[in-house]
């Protein structure tokens, strides 16, 4: 490792960093700004997805396309996942554009309170990983399908409607944050 790293033998410092940044396993790469504030906890995923570091320092995007490499983020807390029919290339991008203003609003609201946003936002197309996720969570094959998945709580919330509109997404998110939705077990 040619970069600066905490020596594995320095257990006291590793333990403090684990507590400070919520590190639960290795390898972990957390990117900090010069003030020590977290830019991303997904540095490892970002390096794998951006090997030439064109988007460094990898400020989080409000909405991610669900991929094999970032699917690990589903375990970090509740995630809104909008499943779409990715046979149509424009549908995935349109879905991102639909939920992006809502994601940005939620992120800004919690950032102003110096808190982490309570949801991550994803768009999932049709691929083997998405099929596995649907199987694991026992979700129908419908598309579009609006869900909130909370893997750590082993709970899901499903909004199965013909058309997903910004109003439907916003109401779904607001109801989730207000604990008005009834979870289904995963």
From TrEMBL:
GO terms for cellular component: nucleus. Residues 1-38 form the Thioredoxin-like fold domain. GO terms for biological process: negative regulation of protein ubiquitination; negative regulation of Wnt signaling pathway. It comes from the Eukaryota. GO terms for molecular function: thioredoxin-disulfide reductase (NADPH) activity. It holds the Pfam family Thioredoxin_6. This is Thioredoxin-like fold domain-containing protein.
């Amino acid at each position: 490792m040619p970069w600066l790293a905490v020596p594995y033998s320095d257990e006291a410092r590793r333990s403090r960093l684990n507590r400070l940044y919520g590190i639960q396993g290795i390898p972990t790469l957390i990117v900090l700004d010069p003030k020590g504030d977290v830019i991303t906890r997904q540095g490892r995923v970002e390096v794998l997805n951006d090997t030439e570091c064109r988007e460094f320092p990898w400020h989080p995007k409000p909405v991610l396309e669900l991929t094999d490499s970032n699917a690990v983020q589903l375990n970090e807390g509740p995630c809104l996942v909008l499943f779409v029919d990715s046979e149509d290339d424009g549908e995935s991008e349109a879905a991102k554009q639909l939920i992006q203003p809502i994601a940005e609003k939620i992120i800004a609201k919690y950032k102003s309170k110096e808190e982490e946003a309570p949801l991550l936002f994803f768009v999932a197309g049709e691929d083997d990983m998405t099929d596995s996720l649907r199987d694991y969570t026992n979700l129908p094959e419908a598309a579009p399908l609006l869900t909130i998945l909370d893997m750590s709580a082993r709970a899901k919330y499903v909004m199965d409607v013909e058309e997903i509109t910004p109003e439907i997404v916003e109401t779904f998110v607001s109801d989730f944050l207000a604990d008005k939705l009834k979870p289904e077990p995963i």
